Amino acid sequence: MARVAIFGGSFNPIHYGHLLLADEVREALALDRVLFVPAGSPPHKSPLHLAPAPDRYAMVALATAGNPAFVVSDIELRRPGPSYTVDTLAALHEAARDELFLLVGSETFLDLLSWKEPARIARLARLVVVPRAGSLFDPDGDQAQKVLREIGQARFARPGEPLPPDGVLIVNAVSLPISASDLRRRAREGRSLAYRMPDSVIAYMRAQRLYHA
Question: Which residue segment(s) compose the domain that 148 sits in?
Answer without folding.
Answer: 3-175
